């Protein structure tokens, strides 16, 4: 199965092409540029380097990070994925940004805690744990705490309560590192640079894992529901002014 994966949920823009157990190619940037100007050119360059025509590349599914993350970035990724899926006549699989971040740390003992800076003194986060491989050798990852938008203190309290070692990853780690060091009472570590930001290859790999558990995901569908986890600033301001978000 060939999977074209996209992630524009944060500062990182990333595209990747996977085939079964191999990453054929990946292009990622971590730079202050609007994803609307980078994502498709990156995809074009990736296809050129792989000497593939995207229309003839035998892509079976588009996997895209569905959030949480930057509202604008998520919408750009979703629009790009929907356009590609329509043109290629393939289904879309939405992948949790946090689950993909955690999935990239396969083999970690204890908990994996992805942290994305959500601003306004909050983080997007969740907790994950790897289990024993299934009968076919596939990776098993359990969601211990569902994706949420909370304060850094709240997620650290949850981690400490579970009394398990933990590895932190994501762009929020550098923002809250001093807080993590001061308030984490269980053994902890920080993911290395190769695994502490969003990667399209992790989105694609997790999508393949999802299909392995539920093949109905491959049924052609262009629908995609994004996980914002909280209202946008415009929606919050409208509600504060007594308006409606309908």
What does this structure look like?
The chain is α/β, with parallel strands linked by helices and 246 residues long. 35% of the residues lie in helices and 28% in strands. Strands 3-2-1-4-5 form a 5-stranded mixed beta sheet, sandwiched between helices. A hairpin with a 4-residue loop joins β1 (2-7) and β2. The radius of gyration is 18 Å and the shape is globular.
Q: What's this model, at a glance?
A:
This protein has 246 residues and is an alpha/beta fold. The protein contains 7 helices and 10 strands.
Helix percent reads 25-40%
The biggest sheet, with number of strands, parallel, antiparallel or mixed sense and barrel status, is: 5 strands, mixed
- Give the overall pLDDT as a whole number: 91
Q: Which strand order do you get reading across the main beta sheet?
A: 3-2-1-4-5
Low-confidence stretches: 234-239
Rounded to an integer in angstroms, the radius of gyration calculated over CA atoms is 18 Å
Question: Which helices and strands appear, and what pairs or packs with what?
Answer:
Layout: E1 2-7, E2 12-19, E3 22-30, H1 35-49, E4 61-67, H2 71-88, E5 92-96, H3 97-103, E6 111-119, E7 122-130, E8 141-150, H4 152-162, E9 166-169, H5 172-183, E10 188-190, H6 200-213, H7 233-240
Parallel strand pairs: 1-4, 4-5, 6-9, 9-10
Antiparallel strand pairs: 1-2, 2-3, 6-7, 7-8
Helix pairs in contact: 1-2, 3-6, 4-5
Which short descriptors sum up this protein?
five-stranded mixed sheet, globular, 7 helices, single chain
């Amino acid at each position: 199965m060939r999977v074209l994966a996209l992630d524009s949920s944060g500062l990182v823009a990333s595209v990747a092409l996977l085939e079964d157990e191999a990453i054929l190619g990946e292009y990622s940037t971590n730079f202050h540029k609007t994803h609307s100007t980078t994502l498709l050119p990156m995809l074009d360059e990736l296809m050129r380097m792989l000497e593939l025509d995207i229309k003839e590349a035998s892509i079976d599914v588009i996997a895209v990070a569905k959030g949480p993350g930057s509202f604008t970035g998520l919408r750009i990724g979703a629009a790009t994925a929907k356009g590609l899926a329509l043109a290629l006549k393939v289904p879309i699989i939405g992948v949790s940004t946090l689950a993909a971040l955690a999935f990239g740390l396969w083999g970690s003992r204890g908990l994996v805690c992805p942290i994305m800076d959500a601003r306004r003194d909050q983080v997007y986060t969740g907790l994950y744990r790897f289990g024993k491989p299934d009968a076919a050798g596939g990776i098993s990852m359990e969601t211990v705490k569902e994706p949420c938008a909370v304060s850094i203190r709240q997620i650290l309290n949850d981690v400490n309560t579970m009394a398990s070692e933990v590895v932190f990853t994501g762009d929020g780690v550098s923002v809250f590192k001093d807080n993590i060091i001061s308030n984490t009472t269980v053994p902890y570590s920080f993911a290395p640079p190769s695994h502490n930001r969003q990667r399209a290859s992790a989105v694609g790999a997790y999508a393949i894992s999802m299909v392995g558990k539920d093949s109905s995901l491959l049924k052609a569908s262009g629908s995609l529901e994004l996980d914002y986890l909280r209202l946008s600033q415009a929606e919050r301001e409208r509600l504060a002014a007594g308006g409606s978000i309908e």
